[in-house]
């Protein structure tokens, strides 16, 4: 590792005033490692936010599930169907949140292992793609999280540009896109399994989302 890059990689971020921090929010100058550590902390904060959202949705899930069981026990299939449709929508949201959380965890894991200059470009480029995908999914549900993930993505893009400038390395966007999709696919598979394990199935006879309720006899 060159002396120039060692300095750029390892120096600490000094204290700055509020106005300076705002100006540097998208692409702060300085060494790369503290900036990566800063990005990790911000992503971890979003993971905690998703955890809190999951808890809220889980409580709502339990409440609606109980109403479905109650309606079903009273042979009120029309009411049970209404609640079943509502539950299906909530579980879609829960699955999306779990998927996003798993994807963000993978980004944190990858960023935490970056230790050399070459790793910066090859690791961060897919991470930016994952963040963009997760951000798009959050847009309608958590606008604040969407904005923060966008800022983190800009931060990582700035780090990539600086690392590429320092080394002359070019980003293989096709490979980065493939790696990002692989991370998202793995997260989706695990999310699907977690949803199945976490939430009880509806009683037999309750129509799933999109189906018509059976006629009462």
Quickly describe the structure.
This protein is mainly alpha-helical and 217 residues long. 76% of the residues lie in helices and 0% in strands.
Question: Which class best fits the helix and strand makeup?
Answer: mainly alpha
Q: State the CATH topology.
A: Ferritin
Q: Catalogue the unreliable spans.
A: 11-16, 18-29, 209-217
Largest sheet geometry:
none
What is the level 1 CATH name? Mainly Alpha
Q: What share of the residues lie within helices?
A: over 70%
**Shape designation:** elongated
Domain module count:
1
Radius of gyration: 22 Å
* Distinct helical segment count: 7
Q: Summarize model confidence as the mean pLDDT.
A: 75
| Topology as a string of helices (H) and strands (E) | HHHHHHH
Q: What's the architecture in CATH terms?
A: Up-down Bundle
Distance between the termini: 78 Å
- % residues in beta strands: under 5%
Number of strands: 0
Explain this structure.
Helices cover 76% and strands 0% of the residues. The protein is built from seven helices and no strands. Helix 3 (32-73) runs antiparallel to helix 4 (77-112), helix 4 (77-112) crosses helix 7 (173-198) and helix 5 (117-138) packs across helix 7 (173-198).
